[in-house]
């Protein structure tokens, strides 16, 4: 009997060891699989054909990727390979920088106009075309700078670029169709295509927020047909607004008396305000929640004033005592950018930079600030101000909001002079 117990015990011990060995092997396999998956994180060109692999992929579906300050500093006009992507919906087969060739694509134009109509992309291409160069920016760009970190994709500074659009102005389109705008029209409400089972996407912005004459149905970007991933064959472009108002894959546009109440309009893409949509953003306690509604917040419409330092880059070493600090500034285009000030001593003193030129009122103002610097470590800061007196806060966290929109705090870059 004791011998039988001994055999049973030994058999049980063997079974236990075999089980642990298998479990350990399985765990190792899962670990290696996880490591392999981490190593196989797709690059930007694998997610979107034609993109620069140096772009940072924040999400593969829907596609979200940001550029880098290094890439942005190499181009006057941001190429389609280097331009960020922020898609809220997925349309099958459109993750490419090639054109979206779909003959017969129709856009419905309706709402508060004298005669609703439909127009194909081919008809649009035969109407008078206009070009506008503007800064395109995700309203969450800079979100990673807020503290505590808000919800959403952790954008640093790469959710922006400057592109040249080509298309038909809305004003030109209505005139060509001999259609008049109703006096009660206050908003433009747009719908993206739902082909392939894509989720509905509806956005509005007030006509009074921007220069209405600049809003267009864009068919081209940077001298080429509009890339599929950037909204081809046709998207609404409202120069001076954040990207969320520039609806891609446009299928319907209506002139309405009020803004959309859809999910993409409220509670998404909004910031707290005092009563009245056009009042300044309302400071909220960092880390707090806010009950977003149409009457206590506004959508991300006009871009706020901002500036970036593109050279020197953070952590870089610069040889020589004459250092050229370079960057760009921009706003919503409603007033010229009047000055850019640069500090190399933590904000103790500021010197006006030289504004070298701009690409039109909606584009980047390029600036340079020559500095004579002895060898050592520095932190350079830059802030822009326009003719309306709008400027950047030294501490961007004063406008903290739980979704991390509209960051425009003064940029700080640490570098070394050798």
TrEMBL record:
The lineage of its organism: Bacteria, Thermotogati, Deinococcota, Deinococci, Thermales. CDD domains: SO_family_Moco_dimer. GO terms for biological process: sulfur compound metabolic process. This is Sulfite oxidase. It holds the Pfam family Mo-co_dimer. Its cofactor is Mo-molybdopterin. It comes from Meiothermus hypogaeus NBRC 106114. The keyword Ribonucleoprotein does not apply. InterPro entries: Ig_E-set, MoCF_OxRdtse_dimer, Mopterin_OxRdtase_euk, OxRdtase_Mopterin-bd_dom, OxRdtase_Mopterin-bd_sf, TAT_signal, TAT_signal_bac_arc. One of its GO terms (molecular function) is heme binding. Keywords: Metal-binding, Molybdenum, Oxidoreductase. It comes from the Bacteria. Residues 301-416 form the Moybdenum cofactor oxidoreductase dimerisation domain. Residues 103-262 form the Oxidoreductase molybdopterin-binding domain.
């Amino acid at each position: 009997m004791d011998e039988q117990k001994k055999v049973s015990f030994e058999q049980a011990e063997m079974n236990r060891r075999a089980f642990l060995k298998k479990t350990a092997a399985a765990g190792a396999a899962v670990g290696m699989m996880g490591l392999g998956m981490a190593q196989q994180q797709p690059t930007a060109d694998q997610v979107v054909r034609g993109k620069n692999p140096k772009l940072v992929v924040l999400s593969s579906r829907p596609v979200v990727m940001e550029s880098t300050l290094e890439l942005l500093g190499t181009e006057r006009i941001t190429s389609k390979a280097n331009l960020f992507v922020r898609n809220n919906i997925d349309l099958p087969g459109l993750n490419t920088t090639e054109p979206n060739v779909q003959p017969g694509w129709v856009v419905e134009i309706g709402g508060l106009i004298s005669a609703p109509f439909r127009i194909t992309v081919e008809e649009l291409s035969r109407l008078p075309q206009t070009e506008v160069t503007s800064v395109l920016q995700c309203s969450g760009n800079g979100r990673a700078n807020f503290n505590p970190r808000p919800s959403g994709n952790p954008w640093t500074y790469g959710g922006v670029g400057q592109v040249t659009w080509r298309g038909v102005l809305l004003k030109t389109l209505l005139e060509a169709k001999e259609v008049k705008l109703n006096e009660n029209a206050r908003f433009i409400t747009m719908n993206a295509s739902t082909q392939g089972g894509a989720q509905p996407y509806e956005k509005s912005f007030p006509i009074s927020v921007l220069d209405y004459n600049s809003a267009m149905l864009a068919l081209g970007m940077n001298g080429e047909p509009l890339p599929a991933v950037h909204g081809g064959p046709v998207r609404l472009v409202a120069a001076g607004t954040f990207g969320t108002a520039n609806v891609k894959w446009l299928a319907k546009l209506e002139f309405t008396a009020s803004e959309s109440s859809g999910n993409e309009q409220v509670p998404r893409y909004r910031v707290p305000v005092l009563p009245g949509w056009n009042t300044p953003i309302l400071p909220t306690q960092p880390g707090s929640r806010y009950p977003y509604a149409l009457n206590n917040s506004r959508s991300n419409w006009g871009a706020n004033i901002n500036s970036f330092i593109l050279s020197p880059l953070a952590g870089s070493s610069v040889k020589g005592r004459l250092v050229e600090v370079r960057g760009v500034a921009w706003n919503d285009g409603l007033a010229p950018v009047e000055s850019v000030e640069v500090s190399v001593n933590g904000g103790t003193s500021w010197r006006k930079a030289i504004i070298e030129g701009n690409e039109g009122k909606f584009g980047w103002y390029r600036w340079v600030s020559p500095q004579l610097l002895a060898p050592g470590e520095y932190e350079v800061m830059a802030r822009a101000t326009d003719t309306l007196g709008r400027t950047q806060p030294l501490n961007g966290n004063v406008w903290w909001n739980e979704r991390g929109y509209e960051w425009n705090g003064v940029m700080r870059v640490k570098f070394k002079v050798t």
